[in-house]
């Protein structure tokens, strides 16, 4: 066995020293990004501190989470927002039951099958829905569901409007998650003779499930605070209404709007409390989306 001896020692690669100008530009860019971040954070923190400071007394009061406003006078403190929480959750849940399956199927079609004019039209319509204001969606449902078909104003009409707002979020988030699934998984499944529909159902969708579920929860959180649909399509009620298809039903955005017209201090007390309650519910949904995504990714 022969040993080769190098005539010259190997020198470490030489790197040119960073010039002073590049260092200065790097520091300026870094400082600008941090400054932009802090500027964007200031209004967020200000709103959060304001809502928490003014709404904390309400959300920690006795009966806030378990009672309604039935029998509570405009100038009277007390009662709770149980009826509004119920309405917000029910309206959003019904919208999710409709929008999530439609959004998933549309995303699967666009990623796995979408070719030609139909795919382009579907993508175009999803882009349009993503930019539609909530008041336009509410007026569309009012014109079609109530004015044309003669259905009464109800919580279900609100859910239909929320479907239009939720659908593009579900489609886009699901579409991006499906695109992240490696093509090697699909090709391996096809090589085993598994048909395409079963590959999508058994391989592609389960692989993308963590991100898809997170997108669904974020879509629900996105529509929970919408005010225009509840203002146009349903009236306010101080008590719980379990009939989804008829009668007034309260929600947190509608309660806030209703109490803003109340000049009494008790009205402002309820406004800030309802605002903080809505923020807490949406924050829990965002936290739940992160936890679900982490757990499913870990167990996969």
Automatic annotation (TrEMBL):
Q: Can you list the GO cellular component terms from the UniProt entry?
A: plasma membrane
**Which GO terms of type biological process are on file?**
phosphate ion transmembrane transport
* Domain of life the protein comes from: Bacteria
Q: Where does the record place it?
A: Cell membrane
User: Which residues does UniProt call coiled coil?
Assistant: none
Q: Which keywords annotate this record?
A: Cell membrane, Membrane, Phosphate transport, Transmembrane, Transmembrane helix, Transport
TM stretches of this protein: 32-52, 84-111, 123-147, 153-171, 200-221, 271-292
Instruction: Give the ABC transmembrane type-1 domain ranges.
Output: 85-293
Keyword Transport attributed: yes
What are the GO MF terms of this UniProt record?
Answer: phosphate transmembrane transporter activity
User: What Pfam families does the annotation carry?
Assistant: BPD_transp_1
Q: Which family does it belong to?
A: Belongs to the binding-protein-dependent transport system permease family. CysTW subfamily.
Provide the protein name: Phosphate transport system permease protein PstA
């Amino acid at each position: 066995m022969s040993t080769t001896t190098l005539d010259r020692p190997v020198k470490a690669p030489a790197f040119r020293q960073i010039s002073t100008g590049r260092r200065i530009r790097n520091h300026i860019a870094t400082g600008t990004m941090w400054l932009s971040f802090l500027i964007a954070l200031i209004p967020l923190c200000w709103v959060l501190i304001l809502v928490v400071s003014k709404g904390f007394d309400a959300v920690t009061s006795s009966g806030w989470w378990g009672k309604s406003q039935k029998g509570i006078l405009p100038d009277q403190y007390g009662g709770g927002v149980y009826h509004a929480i119920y309405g917000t959750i029910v309206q959003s849940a019904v919208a999710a039951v409709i929008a999530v399956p439609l959004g998933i199927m549309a995303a699967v079609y666009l990623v796995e099958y979408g070719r030609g004019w139909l795919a382009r039209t579907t993508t175009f319509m999803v882009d349009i829905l993503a930019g539609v204001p909530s008041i336009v969606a509410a007026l569309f449902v009012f014109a079609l569901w109530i004015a044309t078909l003669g259905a009464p104003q109800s919580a279900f009409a609100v859910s239909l409007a929320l479907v239009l707002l939720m659908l593009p979020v579900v489609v886009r988030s699901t579409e991006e998650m499906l695109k992240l699934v490696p093509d090697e998984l699909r090709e391996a499944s096809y090589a085993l003779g598994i048909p395409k529909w079963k590959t999508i159902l058994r391989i592609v969708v389960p692989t993308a499930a963590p991100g898809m579920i997170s997108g669904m929860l974020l879509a629900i959180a996105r529509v929970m605070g919408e005010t225009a649909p509840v203002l146009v399509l349903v009236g306010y009620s101080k008590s719980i209404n379990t009939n989804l298809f008829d009668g007034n039903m309260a929600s947190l955005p509608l309660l806030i709007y209703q109490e803003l017209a109340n000049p009494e201090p008790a009205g402002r007390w309820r406004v800030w409390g309802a605002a903080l309650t809505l923020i807490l519910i949406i924050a829990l949904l965002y936290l739940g989306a992160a936890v679900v995504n982490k757990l499913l990714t870990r167990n996969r």
